[in-house]
Amino acid sequence: MTTTTATPHVYPNVLSPLHATLLCGQVPLFLGALMADIAYYRSYQIQWSNFASWLIAGALVFAGLAMLFALVGLFRRRNPRPLTYFLLLLVTWVLGFINALEHAKDAWAVMPMGLALSVIVTLLAIAATWVGMAQPRTGDAR
């Protein structure tokens, strides 16, 4: 008598829970910095610029750690999607760092470049999260 056991389906492109948390955690931080920049642009209350600086710093920590996970994933897989994902995270982090340097200036000197960089970095973070969390479709079409 022979018994067969079904082997569990392995999902090679599924992110670990820590990686997914770091990746998704950057989006609300960059988005919060964008909203703080918009509030500063409309009110010129200097504290909004300070809030944006701290939110950007936190987002850079999350994005940097997610980028480390993506770098490891780049060497483990052979398909081209991890390269796109890693490059999106790298560009997001570099422009986020430039945005942090822009926000380190005097509060009156932050606008309008700080706001423009916040918009670009937020969109890049959303795109990186979208690409990182997207799973390739497998199976037959119905």
UniProtKB/TrEMBL annotation:
Coiled-coil intervals: none
Spans traversing the lipid bilayer: 20-40, 52-76, 82-101, 113-133
One Pfam assignment: DUF2231
Residue ranges of every copy of the DUF2231 domain listed in the record: 16-133
Entry keyword set: Membrane, Transmembrane, Transmembrane helix
Superkingdom: Bacteria
Keyword Transmembrane helix on entry: yes
InterPro entries: DUF2231_TM, UCP029509
Protein name: DUF2231 domain-containing protein
